[in-house]
Each structure stands twice: as structure tokens, then as C-alpha cells.
Amino acid sequence: MLFNRFHPRVQKMLMALIYGIILVFLAMIIVNGIHIAIVNAGRIMNDIPISYSFVTIAVPVGSFLMLLTTLEKMFTLVRKTPVRTAPSTKVSEGDSDPKE
């Protein structure tokens, strides 16, 4: 995949950009979905005597939950620091030199 060929720092910046775009999109869905739910408050469904806004509010609620998940992923991405370890030269207890 092309994304994996980038430097890890560039990958991190691209992921942050993608998460930012997702956050803006979900925020727009939440705001417009709440507006539509309010507008449809007086509309009654034909089969069931409840307001149509109960149906339309499901989209902003689901979008809010996805927004929380995206924020969690974004904070994890920001907090994640690359771990640089030197190659281990320590000999474990089970490994012994056969010459000894």
C-alpha cells in the first residue's frame, strides 16, 4: 500500500488530517441532523402514533458516537510515540555458550 511507504512521521500527519476531516463531517451531520429532528417534531408517522423526529434523531446520535470513537483514535495517535530500542545483546538464562 502506498501509505505504508511514507515515513512514520508523514503517516502520523496524514492520519491526523484524515481524522480531522472525519470530525468535521460528523459534526456537520450532528448539527444538521438535530435541525431536521426539530423540524420534524410535529410530523406524525402513519403506522405508529409517534413523532418522526424519533426516527431522524438516530442519525445525529450515531454520528455523535462515531465522533467520540474518532476523538479517541486521534488522541491515541497523538499520544503514541515511536519506541526506539537498541538491539538486545543480553543472553538469557536458557541460552548458554556451548563451549563452556
Describe the main β-sheet briefly: none
Pairing-aware structural class of the strands and helices?
Answer: mainly alpha
Instruction: Tell me the radius of gyration.
Output: 25 Å
- Beta percentage is under 5%
- In sequence order, what are the helices and strands, one letter per element? HHH
Oligomer: single chain
Uncertain runs are none
Shape: rod-shaped
Number of helices: 3
Distance between the termini: 48 Å
Could you please describe the fold and organization of this structure?
- There is one protein chain.
- The protein is an all-alpha fold and 100 residues long.
- It has a domain at 27-80.
- Helix content is 58%, strand content 0%.
- The protein contains 3 helices and no strands.
- It has helices at residues 8-39, 53-56, 58-79.
- Helix 1 (8-39) packs antiparallel against helix 3 (58-79).
Concise account of the structure shown:
The chain is mainly α and 100 residues long.
What does the secondary structure layout of this molecule look like, with pairings?
Blueprint: H1 8-39, H2 53-56, H3 58-79
Give me some keywords for this one.
single chain, 100 residues, mainly alpha, 3 helices, 58% helix, rod-shaped
